[in-house]
Amino acid sequence: MLKRACLCVPVPPLFRIIFTSCYFYRLGNKAFGSKSYDEAIKHYTEAIQLDATNHVYFSNRSASHGGKGDWADAATDAKECIKLNPSFVKGYYRLATAQTELGNWDAAIATIKQGMNVEPDNSQLSKLLRQVKAKRANAKRAASAASAAANTASNTSGVGPTTSFASTTDRELLDLQEQFITSNREYNTVKANIHKSQREVKMNELTKAELETVPVTEDAKMYRGIGKMFMLSTRGDIMNHLDTCVEEESKREESLKNKAEYLERKMKSQQLNIQELTKSKE
């Protein structure tokens, strides 16, 4: 019986099995339907390795990344989808959704408008545009609320030095709020990359476990996926490659976690400074 792993395809003697991209695409759809997003990503990736010109494969893998909350990867696949087929409206929806989740509201609005140039009456894009504009407006209101309160107080008092002090404090407060928004956006990107590394480690470990169940015979041939190609490799080479991938991704994950902790501390500090500045104006 033939057993298939993610990066290696054991081929019995006298037989050569060609897995078409459509086959993997259907497997991906089935996994996505059951919300098995890791498995769906795995199959869509296999389909892309065989046919990297099909925009639907990238669109569906983008949706799978989104299902896991990996919005940076979702945006990357959505961009490739649009690049392959600029008339495919769903690609714009995928990208704008990812950009919104990453806090890139202006970019999301620009993407939605591009999609609406293709299909002006698209209800999904129209609804998403309203939602993104509302989120952006809320963020701007939060950033300017302190400034508005300070201006009201200074106008009521009519005292020159107080007005000058309020103006300086307002600028500091706005700067801090902008810094916090930037830090939060960077934090979301780092978290998305952590999920990506964890997924890669899991997929490679699953491949190793699956490969270990394949009987070792002298005439068995194994192939390792490299981009769109499959390279004939020994079982040992494939196992070593998987071990190296797991080690590298684990180190990357650890580095990203350290960065995420740093950003968390940074945002807490920024929040405290914002609260202190706000109280000083009362």
Task: Describe this entry's structure for a reader.
Mean pLDDT is 79; it is low at 1-18 and 159-166. Helix content is 77%, strand content 4%. It has helices at residues 21-33, 37-50, 55-68, 71-84, 89-101, 105-118, 123-157, 160-212, 235-280, and strands at residues 222-226, 229-233. It has a two-stranded antiparallel sheet with strand order 1-2. With 282 residues, it is mainly alpha-helical.
In short:
This protein has about 280 residues and is mainly α.
Q: What attributes does this structure have?
A:
282 residues, mainly alpha, two-stranded antiparallel sheet, 9 helices, disordered N terminus
Main sheet properties: 2 strands, antiparallel
Count of distinct strands? 2
Fraction in beta strands? under 5%
Topology pattern, helix = H, strand = E: HHHHHHHHEEH
Instruction: Provide mean pLDDT, rounded.
Output: 79
Low-confidence stretches: 1-18, 159-166
Helix content: over 70%
- Order of strands in the sheet with most strands: 1-2
- From the helix content, strand content and strand pairing, which structural class follows? mainly alpha
Tertiary shape: flat
Helix-strand blueprint:
Layout: H1 21-33, H2 37-50, H3 55-68, H4 71-84, H5 89-101, H6 105-118, H7 123-157, H8 160-212, E1 222-226, E2 229-233, H9 235-280
Antiparallel strand pairs: 1-2
Helix pairs in contact: 1-2, 1-3, 2-3, 3-4, 3-5, 4-5, 5-6, 5-7, 6-7, 7-8, 8-9
